[in-house]
Design brief:
Layout lengths: L1 H7 L16 E8 L6 E6 L15 E8 L4 E3 L1 E4 L2 E3 L12 E8 L4 E4 L2 E2 L5 E13 L5 E12 L8 E12 L6 E4 L2 E4 L7 E4 L2 E4 L7 E7 L4 E2 L9 E11 L9 E9 L2 H17 L14 E5 L5 E8 L1 E8 L28 E2 L8
Parallel strand pairs: 1-22
Antiparallel strand pairs: 1-2, 2-6, 3-4, 3-7, 5-6, 7-8, 7-9, 8-21, 10-11, 11-19, 12-17, 12-18, 12-20, 13-14, 15-16, 17-24, 20-23
Length: about 350
């Protein structure tokens, strides 16, 4: 009877909450003093616990970047929700103030709070340090910590963001691609491989267009200029990123670059909050709390939430190559035991068959 009474006290209540017509807007954009084009992305905000938690890009009727010197440019939609300036369009300049205006198709209009571009300071050098660590299962992991030295030049306020970007080159074998053939698999070289399958086997007919890729990878956490880094306007030995040693990263070599971006007070508060929340995800003693402070406000249309950031930043950068010769014991590079018989663009995200301008 007790079990029956306890079970009878529990009723499931299902509440059907419709998706609001005025969806929240998320803005992600940046203008620098480096050559464009600059990109602004527009997406729908979503509840991370809902079943429809996917990144959905949305179009706008007009997206405009302007400065306090009378310059402005209407951005072009390159793909849904992704807007860019032209190569020779508006360009950031230290000392000026920049604003983004987004006009949605439903009549809503959003603008960013004016964001000033300060001088960038100076990246002095980027270097690396080999290390060996243990994974959770006790196995050894090998890689390089990427470090940098930088300074604030004559800037009185040290609001900086440092971005890590690594690039490595990979080779694959799309001519060895196969497809199901009865109970086995038969050769079916990809068209981009430059090979065709004939009576005599594989025949080379053109240079491969998908055998060589350059892969970009990025830091897990944004690095911001917290007070403990500062040594009278200099930042010495700061860890900017990590390069793991795998069978792919050191097929050739790795290019690592660190960009130093000068930030306004609002942009610095945004990136500092992002770092704090990312660190909290892996810390059971530091729950994820607080709201990321964006700088977008609604100026017209039916009220609806907006998140995100459009900011202006001057940039100073430095880079270095890490080669297999920099590994103290080359035996730690895993051997290439398996052939990747597919296009190199499918091996890693952020892969491209276009050789970067900086690649030597």
């Amino acid at each position: 009877m007790m079990i029956l009474l306890m079970a009878a006290c529990v009723d499931r209540v299902f509440i059907d909450i419709p998706v609001p017509d005025n969806f929240p807007l998320v803005v992600d954009g940046l203008i620098t003093d480096q050559p464009g084009p600059y990109t602004v992305e527009l997406t729908k905000g979503f509840d991370i616990e809902s079943k429809s938690s996917v990144k959905t890009y949305i179009s706008a009727s007009r997206v405009v970047i302007s400065d306090n010197a009378g310059n402005s440019e209407v951005l072009t939609e390159k793909s849904q929700g992704v807007y860019q300036t032209s190569v020779n369009g508006i360009r950031g300049k230290a000392g000026r103030v920049y604003t983004l205006r987004v006009e949605l198709l439903d009549g809503r209009v959003y603008e960013s709070k004016p964001d000033s571009m300060a001088a960038p300071g100076q990246m002095e050098r980027v270097y690396f340090q080999y290390n060996e660590t243990r994974n959770n299962d006790g196995s050894l992991a090998y890689g390089f910590d990427v470090l940098f030295d930088a300074n604030a030049s004559e800037l009185p306020i040290y609001n900086f963001l440092w971005k890590f970007n690594g690039t490595f080159q990979v080779e694959t074998n799309p001519e060895r691609f196969t497809r199901p053939c009865g109970e086995a698999r038969c050769p079916a070289p990809l068209p981009c491989s430059g090979y065709v399958l004939g009576p005599g086997g594989l025949t080379f007919v053109a240079p491969c267009e998908c055998c060589t890729c350059w892969v970009n990878f990025f830091g897990d956490l944004p690095v911001v200029s917290d007070g403990q880094f500062n040594q009278a306007g200099r930042f010495i030995g700061i860890r900017g990123g990590y390069v793991p040693i795998t069978q792919w990263t050191f097929q050739h070599k790795v290019h690592v670059a660190i960009e130093q971006l000068s930030l306004s007070r609002n942009a610095f508060a945004f990136w500092r909050a992002v770092r704090i929340q990312k660190e909290a995800v892996n810390n059971i003693f530091q729950p994820v709390t607080g709201k990321i402070p964006g700088n977008m406000v609604q100026v017209a249309g039916n009220p609806a939430p907006v998140e995100g950031l459009f900011y202006a930043a001057a940039v100073s950068s430095a880079s270095v190559y890490i080669t297999p010769n920099d590994i103290p014991n080359p035996i730690v590079i895993p051997p290439q035991e398996l052939v990747y018989a597919n296009s190199c663009t499918t091996l890693f995200p952020n892969s491209s068959t276009t050789k970067p301008d900086y690649w030597e």
